[in-house]
Write a structure and sequence with these properties.
5-stranded parallel β-sheet, alpha/beta, 356 residues, 7-stranded mixed β-sheet, 14 helices
């Protein structure tokens, strides 16, 4: 038995409690679906609405898992930014599992940056990067007992004097080979109630791609890097249709750094959403140079309600200093074009960039 968990306790973040926009732990749910598809017996601990780790401790005692996989959501920007509380909670969860003799593997941005901390707390392995396939390899190893843990690529393991890293793992490219997230393992009604009580509508998250090929010099890309891998439009539309039928959100948030790098992909996506009646109003992120007449028209057709643009600054000097690769005028044009198609244009702005 494997207990799969994450450490994003809403109760430990007063700002997010006030905001009350809880999203499902996508990476954790994809891992759950992957492990389940491979025949592993799993249980799931969703920390989101728990007051503390007492429920996690009870699950350890009730189901007595052989292994615990702590898989943070690599698609949620809060996982990358708000690390202190999550780290403290994760280390406590690792300690509880280690005290009960469980094998433990951990993945997440903070664990990738600081693996020794997690290994010292009792983890047997820290998985670097995106994590799902390496976690499956670890689970298979623990179940079958063949080979060595050190043979698995993309891990950091305890060493005699210091940590040791196994051979690098190639990033997951064929994203359609991954299963859709295991939404059935969540208490969806808790998410629905939180959203509707606070905002009058229910929003859910979805992701179509991994990575960003652009080179803005302030941007860190520790998990997915500068590559851009994308699912097929057909698979994304199928997930939207399943969400529409099985979860019933009023709105979707596409967590991609960039939704639809290629205009042909966007057009195919819009056609597939229309063909399957998978349309759900959505919010997304993109770049001003990608907002062409053809792409914006397709986004409107697919159901885009808000597009967040990395405007960053109204000064061309600052944009150039950022290596942003865009112009102030392109930002104006993109905003006008989105508005003309009935899509709300939203801006990311940075203030106080060096030399400003």
């Amino acid at each position: 038995m494997i207990l799969l968990a994450h450490s994003n306790f809403l109760a430990r973040d007063s700002k997010q409690q006030a905001k009350m926009k809880p999203y499902s732990p996508l990476s954790t749910l994809i891992s759950a679906a992957l492990l389940r598809r491979a025949g592993h017996e799993i249980a799931f601990f969703d920390a989101t609405f728990e007051a503390g780790i007492a429920r996690f401790e009870r699950m350890l005692d009730e189901i007595r898992p052989d292994a615990v996989i702590l898989m943070e959501d690599n698609f949620n920007f809060l996982t990358k930014m708000c690390t202190t509380a999550r780290r403290e909670t994760a280390l406590e969860m690792i300690g509880l599992a280690a005290d009960r003799g469980c094998k433990i593997a951990v993945n997440g941005p903070d664990a990738s940056d600081n693996p020794a901390i997690y290994l010292c707390a009792g983890a047997d392995a820290v998985v670097l990067g995106e994590g799902e396939m390496a976690m499956l390899d670890i689970a298979n190893f623990w179940k079958e007992g063949a080979g060595e843990l050190a043979d698995i690529r993309g891990l950091v393991l305890p060493g005699s004097d210091q940590v040791r890293q196994t051979k690098p793992r190639r990033a997951q490219q064929e994203l359609d080979h991954l299963p859709h997230p295991a939404w059935d393992m969540l208490d969806v009604d808790s998410y629905r109630s939180a959203w509707t009580e606070a905002h009058g509508e229910f929003s859910w998250n979805i992701v179509t791609s991994r990575g960003c090929p652009y080179s803005c010099n302030w941007c860190a890309k520790p998990t997915f890097g500068r590559r851009y891998s994308v699912r097929s439009p057909e698979d994304v539309a199928l997930e939207m249709l399943r969400l529409k039928r099985e979860v019933g959100p009023d709105h979707l948030w596409f967590t991609d750094d960039i939704l639809g790098l290629d205009v042909d992909w966007i057009c195919s996506f819009a056609d597939e959403v229309e063909r399957t009646s998978a349309d759900i109003p959505f919010t997304m992120q993109s770049r001003v140079n990608l907002m062409t007449q053809r792409s914006v028209a397709a986004l409107a057709k697919a159901g885009a309600r808000e597009v967040w643009l990395g405007i960053e600054s109204g000064s061309q000097k600052i944009l150039d200093a950022m290596d942003k690769g865009t112009t102030v005028e392109a930002g104006r044009s993109a905003t006008r074009l989105l508005r003309a198609h009935g899509i709300k244009a939203c801006w990311f702005i940075q203030l106080g960039y060096p030399s400003e």
